[in-house]
Amino acid sequence: MYFDGAANHSGYGIGVLLISPHGDHIPRSVRLAFTDRHPATNNIVEYEAYSGEWKTRDVKLRPYHAYLELLVARFEDLRYTHLPRAQNQFADTLATLASMIDIPADATVHPLLIESRSAPAYCCLIDDMEIDDGLPWYHDIYHFLRLGVYPEAATAKDRRALRQLATRFVICGETLYRRSLDGILYYVLDRASADRVMREGSCGSLRTTYGGHMLARKIMRTGYFWLTMETDCCQFVRRCPECQIHGDLIHVPPSGVACMTSPWPFSWVEAASYARLTSSGVASFIRSHIICRYGVPHELISDRGVHFRAEVDTLVQRYGIRHHRSSAYRPQTNGAVEGRE
């Protein structure tokens, strides 16, 4: 049993989650409507454990503590475990739900049903609408080229799309071919034949260890075609164990890699000479020689020269760099040497 309580500006509520030995989840959410007569706090419905014993901090909790002692005798084995909110999210959500809503007394609330969807709603709608009639995907194209007829339920937009699609196909004898831009004819395959060709291309005599796009191009060079061959080949390569075993390893660094012009142990900012030091020149040097090559530093330490002000201050504020200035190094400035008369 997971239990939690919630008290906020909208009201007070408690949430309980019961889990049976078979794994059934039974949630229960209750709103406390007596708070106008008996003011409650968040501790009214919660306790804290110290040294294995239950103690109460507030006098208002003593009746609850006494009632809890009566309920303990009804259980054969009872153990209390304090869980942080991150591990008790279900009960915390139920308690918050009960405290945030105000249900009228005459309203009927049905049990709350929580479902889990593994795909977007439009994908489920497509699966429900598509009916497998056992015909190949090119059935409408073949009949349009052979007989010049449209499907019965085709709209004007569907007919226009079918006419445009049919211009890329040609019938030779009784066989349908796909005509490429350079005039090459590809034999059109149905779903079963396409699966057999993909297996032959990856595991048979046409065995290849390339990716899905390369497999699709190799099948086209062999002289076969179907409408979704690029997508089908990529999905087939992901499912094929041999393709994954013999495929190239993907080496990805665990973090972003910066371009280095010298080995890491010896990398340092190169010196630059200027005829006259200005704040704009120093800001340009920091931007081009430090930030662009090594990234944004955490902090910048400089002296108190005037060329480290103005545009340099604007630059460090823009990139969030901490700018620390060293103490004065002239004896007359820091008071180490006093003037003599």
UniProtKB/TrEMBL annotation:
MF terms (GO), sorted A to Z: nucleic acid binding
Domain Integrase catalytic: 237-341
GO biological process: DNA integration
Top-level taxon in the UniProt lineage: Eukaryota
UniProt cross-references to PROSITE patterns, sorted A to Z: INTEGRASE
Name of the protein in question: Integrase catalytic domain-containing protein
Species of the source: Vitis vinifera (Grape)
